[in-house]
Write a sequence for this structure.
């Protein structure tokens, strides 16, 4: 089952994520992600968070109590984390995040840090970038000359090989703190085979 969290912060245009939203088995709004979903014309299955940044609290009136999970502002987990945990509790085995762009740097880092976890999101789509979790055999269709940046998100050393990139990843060994900035897609299909570890791939919006 696929679960999608739409969280606060800057989000992509509706058409950029329409297919993802239509494929979702469970759709959750994390706090002001409800504002975003409302602007898209979608109604989430659940709303989760402390609701401190929700612009229109009147939107909550259309939900019964079982679908609105309200937490205190002083808590140990972010609204996005709580939403992801809820998706797994509801039986989802894969999760994606939409929104979270712009705003405070610590909020951006908090969502990016989720990629290091065992229950990492498969993707995170902001207003300007798409972030994908690269593990096992990973393939993606891109426009030629798309910029591709890669970052280790594993305590394990990342060993991998690649096809379709200007600078091959073959025989490289990356540790946390290593970076692969501004590689380039030379073919319309890029493939990365992870022998160990996992990566976060960041590409600009509109380049798939």
């Amino acid at each position: 089952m696929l679960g999608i969290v739409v969280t606060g912060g800057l989000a992509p245009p509706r058409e950029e994520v329409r297919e993802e939203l239509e494929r979702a088995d469970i759709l959750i709004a994390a706090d002001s992600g409800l504002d975003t979903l409302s602007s898209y014309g979608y109604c989430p299955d659940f709303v989760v968070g402390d609701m401190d940044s929700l612009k229109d609290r009147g939107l909550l009136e259309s939900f019964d109590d079982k679908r609105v999970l309200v937490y205190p502002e002083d808590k140990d987990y972010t609204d996005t984390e709580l939403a992801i945990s809820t998706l797994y509790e509801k039986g989802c085995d894969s999760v994606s995040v939409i929104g979270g762009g712009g705003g405070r740097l610590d909020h951006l880092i908090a969502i990016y840090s989720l990629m290091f976890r065992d229950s990492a999101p498969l993707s995170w789509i902001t207003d300007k970038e798409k972030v994908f979790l690269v593990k096992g055999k990973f393939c993606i269709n891109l426009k030629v000359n798309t910029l591709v940046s890669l970052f280790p998100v594993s305590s394990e050393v990342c060993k991998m090989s690649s096809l379709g990139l200007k600078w091959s990843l073959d025989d490289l060994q990356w540790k946390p703190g290593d970076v692969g900035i501004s590689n380039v897609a030379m073919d319309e299909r890029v493939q990365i085979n992870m022998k160990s570890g996992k990566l976060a791939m960041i590409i600009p919006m509109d380049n798939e």
